[in-house]
C-alpha cells in the first residue's frame, strides 16, 4: 500500500493516549509539589509561626510577579513595536528571505515565548531577594552617620543595595530589549547593511535611540550610586573610602555620571532629529573618559601622591576605619587594663583569688565524652556528642561550672533491629541530661556526676527528661496514641538484666497530626514511605515529629538570623531546653573592616563551616532562642532590642519575638555570651586594639590568637576560647566568663610565643526575671608590657613536654599500653600573673576504655609543677602554700552516679603500674634548687662573686635537705 493511502487512524488513536499520559504526569508532579508546600503549612502552623511562612511566600510571589512583568512586558513591547513598524516593502537579500521563511511559522510563539521565558528567569531572580525588599520597606535608621557623605548607616545597609539591584535589573531589561529590537529590525529589513553603509529606517532609529538613551541614563544613575559604595568596599589597606577614593574616584564618578546622562540626552535627541554622529561621539567620549577618569587618574594619584606619603595621607581615613570597625563589632567599649604580670611564684600568692582557684575547670569537654559514653550510655542505641558543653548551675548555694550533654538516640546501634516500626514508632526519643562537675574528679580520675542515671537522679531538681528534639534525633518519628491504649514508645531501658523496660506515649503538641488519610498521604509522599499511610501504628492521635535539630528549627522560623554553631542544653524552669544564639549581621557597614565569619570561628574544636553569608562587617547577638527538648516549642527573645536590623525584622514579623522582659530568671542564669561572636571580636581586636592610625598603619603591635598547643606541629588550628568562672582585674567578684589570649602576629623566625593580651567577657546575665545583669557583655582586655616575656600557650606546652621530671612521669604513665592525653591548656589571671593549668588524662588502649584524669600540670612564669591534683600542684608551684584551695575534690568512684551502672563497664581503664611522682615537699625543694642554679649561673655571667657564693651555699643546703627528705620517705615507705 502506498504512503498516500495509509490509514491515519492509528496515529489519531495514539494522540489522546499521549495527551492523557502527559496530563497525568503533570498532575503527579504538581501533587508532589503540593505535598511539600502543604507539609510546610502544617509544620509552621503547628509551631505557631505560620505568619513567617505566609509573609515570605507573599513576598516571594509578589516579587516574582513584579520581576516577571518588569522583564516580560518591556521585552514583548520592544519586539511587538519593532515588528509592527517594520517596512512592508523592504527589499531583502536572499539570505534574509530564507531566515524569514524559517522564522515566520514560529514568529507568534517567539513573540510571546521569549518574553515569558525571560520573565520567568527574572521573576525567580527577584523572588530570591525577598528579604532585601522587606528590609528596605521596613528599614530602621541606625542613628549613626558615615563620615564621608553624612548619611545614616541605614542607607548603606538597607537602601543602597536595594537601589543598586533595581538599577542593575532595569539595565538588564533595557539591554535585552535593545538586543531583541536590533535583531527584529534586522530580520525584517528595518536595518540593512549595504557594503560599508548601514541603513536604518526611521521607526527603527527612534526605537533603538530611545532604548540606548534609557540604558545610558541607567548607567549614569549606577555610576552615581557607585560613589556611595566606596565607603563599604574593601581596599588594599582597609575597608572604606581611602585618600584616592575621596580625591580621585568619587569626583571622577560625578563627572562620568554627568557624561553618561549627557550622552543619554543626545540619544533622545537623535530619536527626534535623526543624526547619529553626536551620540556616537558622546559614547566614545564616555568610554575614553571612563578609562582616563575612572582608571588612569586614580592610579596616578595613588602611585605618585599617596604611596610616597601613605602614612600621613591615609591617616584620617584609616582613623575612620578604626573607629567604625570597633563600633560595628561592638568592641568600642572594651576596657583595656595594663597588666604587669608577675612571673615569680611566691608563697600565698593565690590567697586573694581563692574563689577563682576553686572554680578552675579540669574536666575537658573535648576529652571526657568517652567517659560519658562508657559510664552513662547504658544501651547501644544511645549516644553522646563528641564535644560536650559547659554550663553552670546553682548547687547548695554556690555556682558550679558543669560539663553537660544530652543522652540522645543513635539508631545505628539497633543494627539488624532497625526496622521501620522500630526506628519510627518505638525508638522515638533520647532520655535525660548528664552533668559532671567541672572542677572535680573521682579518686581514679572519673567525672563526678551531679546529674545522671536512668531514671534521672541528681542535684538539678525535677524536670522533663525525655528528648524528642535533639541534635541527633531521627529524621522523623510518629508518636501519640488514644488515651488508654498500650504505650509502644521505649521510654528507657531496664536498670538490671531481666527486668522489664518502660514504655511511654508522647502527650505534648510537637508536630502535625496524622488524623486523616489525606495528611497521611502527604507525609508518605514527603518522606517517601508508604508505611506512614499503611501502618496500623498510625492512628487519629498520631503526630509526626521532624526537623528536630534545634538549630534547624530556629533557622526555619527566623530566616533573617545567622545562628551560633554551638547550641547547648540546660534545665530551665523544670524543662530541658536547648539555648540557641542568633545574630543579625551585614557586610554594608561603612568603613568597617570585613571579616570572613567561617575563618574567624574555626578553631581546634571545629573546622571552618560553609556559610551562605560569610563576609561580614557588622554583627550583633540580637536574639536568644530556646527549643523545648520534649515538644520542640521555639521561643525567640529580642536580646538586643537596640539593634536596628532586629527592629527592622520585628516590623516584618511583628508577632514572632518576645521581649527580654518575658525571660525567666532561671533562663537568664543559663544564657551566656556566645562563643562565635567572641571569636569574631577577638579576630578584630587582634589588630583593632590599636586605636591610633599611625601605629596601626605600621602594624607594630598586631596580635593573633595562638595555635592550639596540644595539636600536632603541622596544624594551623587556633586555640578555642574557654568558659571559666573567674575574677578579672576590675571585677568585684568572680563571674562566668569566656576568655582567649593573644600573642604577637609574626611569622617565621621572628615569631614569638609570648603573651601580649588576655581578652575576657562577662558571660553571666544574672538570675532576675526579665532583667539582664549590668556587667553582662563587658569586654576586658589585659595588655601586657612589651618588655614582659610571659610565656604564651605554645611556650608553656613546649616546657611541659620537655621538662625531665614531667617526661619521666609521663613515660611511666605510657607503660602498659596506655595513651597519655593532654587536656585543654587553661590560662587564668590569678596571683598577679597568669597561671596555666592543664589536666593530663590516661587512656588504656582497650576497646572499652576511656580517658581518666590522673595528673595536673601547672605553670606560673618559668616554674612548673606536676602532681596528682590541682591543689597539690599549686602548693608545690607556690613554695609549699599557694594560699588557696583548688576545687578538685576527690570522691570515691561512683559517687554522684545514681541511677544504675553501665551495661558494659570499662575494663582496664588504666595501667596497673602507678608512677612514683615526687612528693609535694620534694617538688618544692626541686623548684627552689632549680632557681638557685639559675641564680648561680646568672651571677657567674655578670662576675658577681658575692651573689655566686650565696647561690652556691643555698644550693648545697637544698641538696642536703632533699637527701634527708628522700631517706625519710624511703624509711616511711618501708
From TrEMBL:
Residues 881-928 are annotated as: Disordered. It is found in: Cell membrane. This is UPF0182 protein GCM10010196_14730. Signal peptide: none annotated. It is a multi-pass membrane protein. Belongs to the UPF0182 family. GO terms for cellular component: extracellular region; plasma membrane. Residues 900-920 have a biased composition (Low complexity). The chain crosses the membrane at residues 17-37, 57-83, 109-130, 166-188, 208-225, 254-273, 280-300. The keyword Nucleotide-binding does not apply. The keyword Transmembrane applies. Keywords: Cell membrane, Membrane, Transmembrane, Transmembrane helix.
Amino acid at each position: 500500500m502506498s504512503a498516500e493511502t495509509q490509514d491515519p487512524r492509528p496515529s489519531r488513536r495514539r494522540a489522546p493516549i499521549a495527551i492523557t499520559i502527559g496530563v497525568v504526569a503533570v498532575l503527579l508532579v504538581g501533587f508532589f509539589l503540593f505535598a511539600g508546600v502543604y507539609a510546610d503549612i502544617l509544620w509552621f502552623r503547628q509551631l505557631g509561626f505560620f505568619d513567617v511562612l505566609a509573609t515570605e511566600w507573599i513576598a516571594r510571589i509578589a516579587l516574582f510577579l513584579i520581576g516577571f512583568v518588569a522583564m516580560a512586558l518591556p521585552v514583548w513591547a520592544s519586539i511587538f513595536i519593532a515588528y509592527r513598524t517594520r517596512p512592508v516593502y523592504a527589499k531583502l537579500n536572499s539570505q534574509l528571505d530564507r531566515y524569514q521563511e524559517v522564522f515566520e511559522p514560529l514568529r507568534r510563539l517567539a513573540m510571546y515565548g521569549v518574553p515569558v521565558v525571560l520573565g520567568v528567569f527574572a521573576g525567580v531572580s527577584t523572588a530570591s531577594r525577598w528579604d532585601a525588599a522587606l528590609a528596605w520597606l521596613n528599614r530602621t535608621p541606625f542613628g549613626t552617620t558615615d563620615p564621608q557623605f553624612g548619611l545614616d548607616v541605614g542607607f548603606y545597609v538597607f537602601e543602597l543595595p536595594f537601589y543598586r539591584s533595581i538599577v542593575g535589573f532595569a539595565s538588564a531589561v533595557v539591554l535585552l530589549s535593545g538586543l531583541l529590537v536590533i535583531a527584529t529590525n534586522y530580520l525584517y529589513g528595518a536595518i540593512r547593511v549595504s557594503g560599508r553603509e548601514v541603513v536604518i529606517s526611521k521607526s527603527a532609529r527612534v526605537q533603538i535611540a530611545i532604548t540606548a538613551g534609557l540604558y545610558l541614563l541607567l548607567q549614569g544613575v549606577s555610576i552615581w550610586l557607585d560613589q556611595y559604595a566606596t565607603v563599604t568596599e574593601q581596599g588594599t589597606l582597609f575597608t572604606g573610602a581611602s585618600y584616592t577614593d575621596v580625591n580621585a574616584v568619587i569626583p571622577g564618578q560625578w563627572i562620568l555620571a554627568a557624561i553618561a546622562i549627557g550622552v543619554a540626552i543626545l540619544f533622545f535627541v537623535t530619536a527626534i532629529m535623526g543624526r547619529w554622529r553626536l551620540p556616537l561621539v558622546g559614547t566614545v567620549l564616555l568610554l575614553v573618559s571612563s578609562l582616563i577618569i575612572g582608571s588612569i587618574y586614580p592610579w596616578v594619584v595613588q602611585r605618585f601622591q599617596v604611596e610616597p606619603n601613605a602614612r600621613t595621607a591615609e591617616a584620617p581615613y584609616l582613623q575612620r576605619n578604626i573607629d567604625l570597625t570597633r563600633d560595628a563589632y561592638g568592641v568600642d567599649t572594651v576596657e583595656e587594663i595594663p597588666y604587669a604580670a608577675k612571673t615569680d611564684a611566691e608563697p600565698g600568692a593565690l590567697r586573694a583569688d581563692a574563689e577563682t582557684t576553686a572554680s578552675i575547670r579540669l574536666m575537658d569537654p573535648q576529652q571526657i565524652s568517652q567517659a560519658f559514653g562508657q559510664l552513662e550510655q547504658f544501651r547501644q542505641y544511645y549516644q553522646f556528642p563528641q564535644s560536650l558543653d559547659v554550663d553552670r548551675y546553682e548547687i547548695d548555694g554556690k555556682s558550679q561550672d558543669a560539663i553537660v550533654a544530652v543522652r540522645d538516640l543513635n539508631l545505628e546501634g539497633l543494627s539488624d533491629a532497625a526496622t521501620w516500626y522500630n526506628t519510627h514508632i518505638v525508638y522515638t526519643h533520647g532520655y535525660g541530661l548528664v552533668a559532671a562537675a567541672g572542677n572535680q574528679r573521682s579518686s581514679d580520675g572519673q567525672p563526678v556526676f551531679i546529674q545522671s542515671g536512668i531514671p534521672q537522679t541528681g542535684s538539678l531538681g525535677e524536670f522533663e527528661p525525655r528528648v524528642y528534639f535533639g541534635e541527633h534525633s531521627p529524621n522523623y518519628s510518629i508518636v501519640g496514641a488514644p488515651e488508654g491504649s498500650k504505650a509502644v514508645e521505649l521510654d528507657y531501658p531496664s536498670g538490671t538484666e531481666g527486668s522489664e523496660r518502660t514504655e511511654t506515649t508522647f502527650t505534648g503538641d510537637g508536630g502535625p497530626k496524622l488524623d486523616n488519610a489525606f495528611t497521611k498521604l502527604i507525609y508518605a509522599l514527603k518522606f517517601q514511605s508508604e508505611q506512614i499511610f499503611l501502618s496500623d501504628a498510625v492512628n487519629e492521635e498520631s503526630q509526626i515529629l521532624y526537623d528536630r535539630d534545634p538549630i534547624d528549627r530556629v533557622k526555619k522560623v527566623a530566616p533573617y538570623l545567622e545562628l551560633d554553631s554551638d547550641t547547648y542544653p540546660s534545665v530551665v524552669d523544670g524543662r530541658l531546653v536547648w539555648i540557641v544564639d542568633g545574630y543579625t549581621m551585614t557586610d554594608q557597614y561603612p568603613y568597617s573592616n570585613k571579616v570572613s565569619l567561617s575563618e574567624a570561628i574555626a578553631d581546634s574544636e571545629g573546622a571552618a563551616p560553609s556559610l551562605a553569608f560569610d563576609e561580614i562587617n557588622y554583627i550583633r547577638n540580637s536574639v536568644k532562642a530556646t527549643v523545648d527538648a520534649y515538644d520542640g516549642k521555639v521561643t525567640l527573645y529580642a536580646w538586643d532590642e537596640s539593634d536596628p536590623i532586629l527592629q527592622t525584622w520585628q516590623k516584618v514579623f511583628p508577632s514572632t519575638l518576645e521581649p527580654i522582659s518575658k525571660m525567666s530568671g532561671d533562663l537568664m542564669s543559663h544564657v551566656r555570651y556566645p562563643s562565635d561572636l567572641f571569636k569574631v571580636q577577638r579576630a578584630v581586636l587582634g589588630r583593632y586594639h590599636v586605636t591610633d592610625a599611625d601605629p596601626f598603619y605600621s602594624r607594630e603591635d598586631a596580635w593573633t590568637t595562638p595555635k592550639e598547643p596540644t595539636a600536632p606541629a603541622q596544624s594551623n588550628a587556633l586555640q578555642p576560647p574557654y568558659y571559666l568562672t573567674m575574677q578579672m582585674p576590675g571585677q568585684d567578684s568572680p563571674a562566668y566568663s569566656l576568655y582567649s589570649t593573644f600573642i604577637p602576629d609574626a611569622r617565621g623566625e621572628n615569631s614569638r610565643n609570648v603573651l601580649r593580651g588576655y581578652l575576657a567577657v562577662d558571660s553571666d546575665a544574672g538570675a532576675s526575671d526579665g532583667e539582664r545583669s549590668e556587667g553582662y557583655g563587658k569586654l576586658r582586655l589585659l595588655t601586657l608590657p612589651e618588655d614582659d616575656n610571659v610565656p604564651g600557650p605554645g611556650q608553656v606546652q613546649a616546657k611541659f613536654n620537655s621538662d625531665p621530671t614531667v617526661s619521666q612521669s609521663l613515660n611511666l604513665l605510657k607503660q602498659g599500653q596506655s595513651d597519655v592525653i593532654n587536656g585543654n591548656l587553661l590560662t587564668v589571671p590569678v596571683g598577679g600573673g597568669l597561671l596555666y593549668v592543664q589536666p593530663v588524662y590516661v587512656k588504656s588502649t582497650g576497646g572499652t576504655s576511656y580517658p581518666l584524669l590522673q595528673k595536673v600540670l601547672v605553670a606560673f612564669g618559668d616554674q612548673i609543677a606536676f602532681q596528682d591534683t590541682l591543689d597539690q600542684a599549686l602548693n608545690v608551684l607556690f613554695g609549699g602554700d599557694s594560699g588557696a584551695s583548688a576545687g578538685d575534690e576527690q570522691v570515691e568512684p561512683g559517687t554522684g552516679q545514681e541511677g544504675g551502672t553501665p551495661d558494659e563497664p570499662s575494663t582496664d581503664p588504666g595501667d596497673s603500674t602507678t608512677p612514683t611522682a615526687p612528693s609535694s615537699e620534694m617538688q618544692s625543694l626541686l623548684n627552689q634548687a632549680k632557681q638557685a642554679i639559675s641564680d648561680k649561673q646568672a651571677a657567674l655571667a655578670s662576675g658577681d662573686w658575692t651573689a655566686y657564693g650565696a647561690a652556691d651555699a643555698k644550693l648545697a643546703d637544698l641538696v642536703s635537705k632533699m637527701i634527708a627528705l628522700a631517706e625519710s620517705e624511703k624509711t616511711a615507705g618501708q
